[in-house]
Amino acid sequence: MVMVELDPTRLHRIGIDNIQDIRVQHVTTSENIALPNDGKNKNKGEDDPFWKNPFQIAQTALVEAFTRISRAMLTGMYNDMSSKMKNNTEGSGGEFLVAIRAAEECSNCQRLVLGDRSSLTTIRRAATLALQSGDPLGVINRLQKANGEEMKELEEKVRNQLVTEKSLSSDAIDESEVQVAMMEALKQDTNFRDRLFRKLEQEVPEFTQAFLKERDYIMSKAIHREISSPEIIRVVGVVGLAHVPGMEANLRAMWKNHALPLEVEATTTKA
Asked: What are phi and psi of 34, to 5 degrees?
């Protein structure tokens, strides 16, 4: 079985028109996996008719506006990173396309799981949390600042190493090499990753909740659900580096029949 960090709405970004075009015996999604705190994701009165809750229309409009801004920012960021990497012929998300094609070519692969939540649902969830914080624009600013500070430090470190190795000036270094070197550094430097994620958790909890914790839970559940089938003896999961620590914690808890981190969080919040 292969699980990739995609949902059906994002298939077109990697050149696949629809889910029926994937040539694997069984293709499933995570769309029916609920979060343990789904009931608490709604504000009181959110489902009331608009005449009973006149603020609902304004709130919905703000969420949609924030969602569009956030989606445009993320799309621009991914496209910018992809354009700087000359050898990235598949473009943004190319690793997921490679995984899907490998699953199609593997005769032993019984199923492929599009294990991620809809990107629009995730962004809308982040927008809702940002609005609930009382400072939605502040959430974006805090995210840009926290991420920017750490990544700038990493870029300077990587750039200096390349300058030393190649005996070139900083201006002469190929930006594609810088991007690749930064990604390799992220893979290897666990201390940096831990520091970055801790900083994001402390300064932008709305982001880490929507973009990391909840998606880690859903993708881990997608894996756990599928391996109950007797024909599944090996699982290959292809996800972004940011999801590895959270998914590892979730999966370890599942093997031990312990409550998952998000389930513990939901129980604590309820109590």
From this structure: -95, 150
- Number of Cβ atoms within 10 Å of the Cβ of 128: 23
Model pLDDT for residues 132-190, shown as the tens digit of each residue: 888 877 887 887 788 778 888 888 888 888 888 888 787 778 888 888 888 888 878 88
Domain boundaries, the chain: 2-270
Contacts of 30 by beta carbon, 8 Å cutoff, 6+ apart: 7, 113, 114, 115, 116, 117, 218, 219, 221, 222
Q: pLDDT tens digit string along 2-24?
A: 999 999 999 998 999 999 999 99
Residue 241: both structure tokens together: 């580096």
User: Which residue type occupies 150?
Assistant: E
The count of residues in the chain is 271
**This prediction's pTM:** 0.78
Confidence of residue 90 (pLDDT cuts 50, 70, 90): low
- How far apart are the C-alpha atoms of 160 and 164, rounded to whole Å? 6
Angle at CA 41, nearest 5°, toward 118 and 49?
Answer: 100
Residues 70 and 119: their CA atoms lie apart, in Å, by 11
Which of left, alpha, beta for 257 (phi over 0: left; psi -120 to 50: alpha)? left
Task: Count Cβ atoms within 10 A of the Cβ of residue 188 and give its class: 0-12 exposed, 13-18 middle, 19 or more buried.
Answer: exposed
* H/E run at residue 124: helix 119-132
Q: What is the identity of the amino acid at 66?
A: F
Amino acid present at 194: D
Amino acid at 205: P
- Measure CA 21 to chain center: 24
